[in-house]
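Q: Can I borrow your eye for a moment on a structure tokenisation matter? Would you mind producing a protein record, from residues through to fold? Write it directly below this note and I will take it from there.
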Amino acid sequence: MDADGSHLTRITDPAGSANNFAWSPDGTLIAYQSDLDGDLDIYVYGLKAQQTRLLTDNEIADYAPTWYCGSTDVVFTSDIRGNPDIYEASALPLDARSIDVARQAMRMVGTDYNDIYPLDAPSDEDASHEGIMPAVTCFACANTQFFGRDIALTEPDECLPRDTPLARRLDLRLGSLHSGF
């Protein structure tokens, strides 16, 4: 769509429901979830290429995509191991086959709790990009898992500047929708 609202282009198949759209940090890709084949999977649409990639394709729910800020990696929730966990996979190349989530996606959070709806902090705050892995601390509190890392499980599809109150708290805790966070 042009800035004035003209020249609309459909990027999803009307046979399925598409939700939880997330723009990539550079504005060239859109990740979303769709039930086109009967279960939720992650799709990525490239604006310049006008091409859609089915990133995940299995009979298990994969949903709530968002982006690592400053990258083309999609972070999403999958129930592939029996309960919701957070995974990461590269959106590119767009012409690649779908991934096997259990074998090809990196499981970032895997607990007995429902780890859902990832939210990422800006990549320039991620020490691992400089070869220094951040310390990860974890403790369980009721039905919420807390981590000291640069990703939080809160509201989807946000890239927060580090000077916001919520972003400052991301290093201290990682919660689920049930945490009241």
User: Anything to note?
Assistant: The helical segments are 101-104, 165-170. Residues 163 and 169 are 10 Å apart (CA to CA).
